[in-house]
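Changelog note: in this version the structure field was regenerated for every chain. One regenerated record is shown below for reference.
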Amino acid sequence: MITGAGRGVGRALAGAALDAGHAVVATVRGDHALPRHERLTVMRLDVRDRAAAHETVERAVEHHGSIDVLVNNAGYGLIGAVEEVSEDDARALMDTNLLGPLWLSQAVIPIMRDQGGGHIVQISTVGAVGTMPMLGLYNATKWGLEAFSEAMAAEVA
């Protein structure tokens, strides 16, 4: 399962997984140009919606029987000085880049535990280990992603 698979890195990952012979559930928020493929299932998902994240994971399991890998790829950058970022922009960024991966991780962990294993891949950035002017809030979302992912890995080990 790959979130944000409609374009960019997510689309490239979906293509590579299909080329390697894997079945892929590709989630997209809006329009996409993913090719039709017998092993590709495209599902609409706005990762900011916790209930929708859980429902989409359930539908993916119903369709494929399991989820062996979750790639939390959906996200975006925001350029702007910290003092100038609006509340709406800050909340949308946090909801997408930080809480979206949290909701999906929470949804797949019980499934993977019941299966006896699985992998969660978080797409982050070099900005998660440092800061850059004009990317403060984006860096904050990725630092948070790194932090909860590290703790989560130890918790489920």
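Spot check on this record: The mean pLDDT is 96. Residues 128 and 157 are 23 Å apart (CA to CA).
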